[in-house]
Design a protein that fits this description.
Layout: H1 2-15, H2 18-25, H3 29-43, E1 48-49, E2 56-57, H4 59-85, E3 92-97, H5 99-104, H6 106-116, E4 121-126, H7 129-137, E5 143-146, E6 156-157, E7 162-171, E8 190-195, H8 200-211, E9 216-222, H9 225-233, E10 239-242, H10 243-252, E11 255-257, E12 265-273, H11 281-306
Parallel strand pairs: 3-4, 3-5, 8-9
Antiparallel strand pairs: 1-2, 5-12, 6-12, 7-10, 7-11, 7-12
Helix pairs in contact: 1-2, 1-3, 1-4, 2-3
């Protein structure tokens, strides 16, 4: 179908790279190249300048790109309306989530979504906030769920869908374990366990240390919350982590919550999208379900928190 070829052309034009377009479309690179050659043969002009580093549009390619994006958009809109008439939600949904959301919250969301809309083909990418934002910006993902600050001003940052509580934790053998509450200055010269740069949790920890003007004796960096958590459990240092990540360890007594007198620490979870991307019915309903399910997730979590 010509629409499929136009989709390939639009993706290559936006990514400016045949290999990246092939990955996004789940096609082979020769297959992508063949689609472009077919279009060039049909129009009798060169549409793209190829090089080993980047693809550049010719003047004819730029004209076709503007029209092709509209044609693909109209086709997808028509397909969605027909599916709605049949009470079906189909198509693909490419979701990206930062680690805390992707490992502890997204599975709950998807379990209910998939049960209600089994015909939607879902692909999930879990990475840190910066990597998810990059993928949304380059249109490799339809929607991103993140907890950190997003650097791209071009990305659409939707209102928060959930508040997340951040806790400072240590092992049960740490000297601060015996204190009910501490003053922030009692945290001077501690060993800290951090996530990697680009992580929303790392950004929050860095801001906490800066705001309280804390000296860090030494630090260790892990590229997952699980790694940070395990390092704290065995006494390597202290860390700031989401309650979602550590609620089981707090309940079992493996970790100690270092409570800072008179303070509670929170951050927001956000939905991010590329403003010019086409919102398919699957994307629209998924975002709607996130907002509908948030109260139930909060209730589930509050019950767990009350048991600690």
């Amino acid at each position: 179908m010509i629409v499929d070829t136009l989709k390939v052309f639009v993706t290559v034009a936006e990514q400016r790279n045949f290999s990246r377009a092939a990955e996004i479309l789940n096609l082979s690179q020769p297959g992508v190249s063949q689609h472009i050659r077919n279009l060039e043969n049909e129009f009798g002009v060169q549409l793209m300048h190829r090089s080993s580093k980047q693809v550049k549009m010719t003047e004819a390619g730029q004209i076709l790109y503007k029209q092709a994006t509209q044609m693909v958009s109209l086709y997808e809109a028509a397909k969605e309306k027909i599916h709605v008439l049949r009470n079906e939600v189909t198509g693909s949904l490419r979701i990206g989530a930062s680690f805390t959301i992707g490992e502890y919250i997204l599975p709950r969301l998807l379990a209910q979504f998939v049960n209600q809309y089994p015909q939607v083909d879902i692909q999930v990418t879990i990475a840190n906030t910066e990597e998810i934002a990059q993928a949304v910006h380059s249109k490799e993902l339809d929607v991103g769920l993140v907890e950190g600050h997003v650097e791209y001003s071009e990305i659409l940052l939707r209102p928060p869908f959930m508040e997340d509580e951040m806790l400072l934790v240590s092992s049960t053998a740490h000297p601060l374990h015996t204190l009910r509450t501490v003053e922030s200055q009692m945290l001077q010269d501690q060993v800290w366990i951090f996530r990697e740069s680009g992580s929303g949790t790392r950004a929050y920890s860095d801001q906490f240390i800066q705001d309280n003007q804390l000296r860090v004796t030494r630090s260790f960096v892990f590229n997952s919350s699980q790694g940070v958590k395990e390092a704290v459990v065995v006494g390597l240092g202290i860390a700031m982590l989401s309650r979602w990540v550590i609620h089981k360890e707090l309940e079992s007594g493996e970790l100690h919550h270092i409570q800072i007198k008179g303070k509670r620490f929170t951050r927001n979870f956000h939905i991010i999208q590329e403003p010019k991307s086409l919102d398919t019915m699957a994307v629209k309903i998924f975002i709607q379900k996130i907002r509908e399910l948030e109260p139930s997730l909060t209730i589930i979590f509050e019950k767990k928190s009350q048991s600690l």
